[in-house]
Amino acid sequence: MNTMRLLVALAFVAAVAYAGELEVESLHKVESCDRRSKSGDMLTMHYTGTLAEDGKKFDSSVDRGDPFTFQLGVGQVIKGWDQALVDLCPGDKNRLTIPPELAYGDRGAGDVIPPGATLVFEVELISIADAPPVVNVFKQIDEDSDEHLSKEEVLQYIKTQLPAEELENGQDPHKITEEIFHHEDKDRDGYISHEEFSGPKHDEL
Ligand SMILES: [Ca+2]
User: 57 lies in which domain range?
Assistant: First the structure.
């Protein structure tokens, strides 16, 4: 990760960072938009993260030239992001000051974020999209809808899912099916019940 020093915002960061509270400062505000970010949305962002203490840059999607996409509000990112990035328009730019309890806490992260660090992020929302629908995999496999997956049903499903090149590379659908039953058919009755199935098995509410 990039540990270049970010000189620009240092004085400012020191002024706004105080312990314990998430702070959001607007750097650019779009007046109106068709859609504002809400929990569950897929957000594509640019961000630059620095340590509040000394202004050290620890990560930046801008430097990589590669915006970051994630689902808001489901714990894919630190709590401070999940809390701060709601109700934004594409084009909005904010500076977030995030206390350790809403970031990496007393443990820190890797070599770059020390324990107990307050983090400062400059974030720009680029776009908002719908989250992909959750696919009920159990229902897909259960051809005859008897709420039990037979070996034949699982085998057929594996065959449809395995790309041709993997089959050519010697991936054996029968073997994969056996492995799945070994894990999933907990009562060893030769069927994977809805209860036994550990994959996605509910329709979206
Ligand atoms: Ca079973």
Answer: 10-129
